[in-house]
Structure formats: C-alpha cells, structure tokens
Amino acid sequence: MAPVTGQLSTRDDTRTGTVLAAHDLTRRYGERTVLDGLDLTIAEGEFVALLGRSGSGKSTLLRAVAGLDDGVAGSGELEVARETSVVFQDSRLLPWARVLPNVVLGLTGRDARDAGQTALDDVGLAGRERAWPNELSGGEQQRAALARSLVRRPDLLLADEPFGALDALTRLRMHALLRDLCAKYRPGVLLVTHDVDEAVTLADRVLVLDDGRFVADRDLTDLGTRRSLRDPAFIAHREALLEALGVETSTNG
Ligand SMILES: Nc1ncnc2c1ncn2[C@@H]1O[C@H](COP(=O)(O)OP(=O)(O)OP(=O)(O)O)[C@@H](O)[C@H]1O
C-alpha cells in the first residue's frame, strides 16, 4: 500500500489477526470535517458494512483506508493488510483487454492464468474468458471485477457500492455470490452501501456513519450465515439500523 501522508503511516500487519486498524482518521474539506477522528478495526475474515446517508463520508472513509486520499490526517496510525483489493460501482475493466487478461492484469508467474480461470469459474463467468468487457452485462462486469480482486487472494477487500448500479434481481444474485466468494476466499471486507437489507444480509458487523462519526456499531453474528428477510431477528436489526440512520419506521400513534 502507498503510504498515507500527514501523521499517518501504513504498514503491513497481518500477524495480529487484524487486516485494518485505523486510529483517529480525520478528513477536512475546507471548513467542513467529513471524518472526525474515526477509529476502525477489521479482523481477519470479518465482513463489515458501512451505512450512512448520502454525503455522510462513506466513500471518503473507504478512499482513506484504500490509500487513495492523500489529504487524510490524524494523530494515530493506519495499518492495512499487505494484500488489499478495491472494487467500485463501475467495474473499471480495461476496454482494450479481454476478460481473462483483465482479471490477471499485473500478476506474474506460471500459475497466474490458472488462478484467473479459477476466479472466473468462481464468479460464474466460465466460458467468457475471451469476451471483451463491453460484451458483458453490468452484472457480468461486476462479476469480472470481483474475480480480478479475489484472484490476488486479498486479506482485505474494500468495496464501494459494488452493486449500486445493478437492478434489484441481479443485486440479490450478487449478494448470494459475494457470500459464497467470502466463504471461499475469506477476506476481511469493508462494504460501503446505501442498502440496509444488503448490509444485514451480508455483514458480520454494520457501522453507521453520520456527521463524521460512527453513530452505530452493530454485531449481526447472531443471524448466522443463512439469512432471511422474514426472520424476526433480521427485521429487528434492520429497524435498529434504520433508526440510527434517522429513518422513521414506526407506524404507531
Ligand atoms: N474533493 C472534495 N472536495 C470537497 N468536498 C468533498 C470532496 N469529496 C467529497 N466531499 C464532500 O465530503 C462529503 C462526503 O462525501 P462522500 O462521497 O464520502 O459521501 P458518501 O457518504 O459516500 O455519499 P454517497 O452515499 O452519496 O456516495 C460530501 O459532503 C462531499 O460533498
């Protein structure tokens, strides 16, 4: 990872069972404080979803921990896993390269092609290796982007609204896919999303960001791995998170 400027430093630290440890992250744009001294830790294999209203700073936080923002300051440290991958709302596939070369771009060694093929099989794109990105649907492009991330066997996967541009049905399929991929590859995950149900379906823990601070930090591990939107415990988590987001859900009175 590239070092973050200011007083923050980035270093490889996967021995402690932690793939992300950020302390006192602060980001200001002029007078406005978008991230206000945040602490955030993600354990190996832990799936953390980040919710917050539009403009609350979710993407700013993800960019900061991805090392993509050199305007971050803080009194503490940012430690991230050695192998970190990032996926965005658009696939960012190179239009002039076919699917398999896109997935293995930058990888070297005899096994790279096989690893790319396996990753494409895992995301359901077997047979599309020689397609051009513009021949894939939006959902398929995001599958390819996931394959490109996971082929590197990341300890930490950072995802900024990866399903935000997809239709509702495709998004549900992608949730099931991401759950299966995480079971196989076991990355720690930070997923930025607007979608409360997406967060409760996928995450071990959900954070809610508001005014530069976390206003909720909710453990969802009681829901287990197979989750249903109709489960009363699922509904209870959803309601609590909507309340933290300031959305009125009660019809009483
Ligand atoms: N380069 C920039 N210059 C000035 N202000 C910025 C810049 N980037 C982001 N901001 C401001 O920081 C705040 C947080 O933006 P950010 O994109 O992180 O929000 P978000 O929670 O991801 O929003 P959304 O859910 O709409 O994507 C916003 O008010 C935005 O206007």
UniProtKB/TrEMBL annotation:
SMART domains, per database record: AAA
Top-rank lineage group of the source organism: Bacteria
Record field: transmembrane: none
Keyword ATP-binding: yes
Domain ABC transporter as annotated: residue spans: 20-236
Name of one Pfam family that matches: ABC_tran
Enzyme nomenclature, EC number: 3.6.3.-
GO function terms (MF aspect): ATP binding; ATP hydrolysis activity
Root EC class: hydrolase
Family annotation (InterPro entries): AAA+_ATPase, ABC_transporter-like_ATP-bd, ABC_transporter-like_CS, ABC_transporter_ATP-bind, P-loop_NTPase
Database matches in Gene3D superfamilies: P-loop containing nucleotide triphosphate hydrolases
UniProt KW keywords: ATP-binding, Cell membrane, Hydrolase, Membrane, Nucleotide-binding, Translocase, Transport
Alphabetized PANTHER family for the sequence: ALIPHATIC SULFONATES IMPORT ATP-BINDING PROTEIN SSUB (PTHR42788:SF17), TAURINE IMPORT ATP-BINDING PROTEIN-RELATED (PTHR42788)
Protein name as it appears in the record: Aliphatic sulfonates import ATP-binding protein SsuB
Gene (name only): ssuB_2
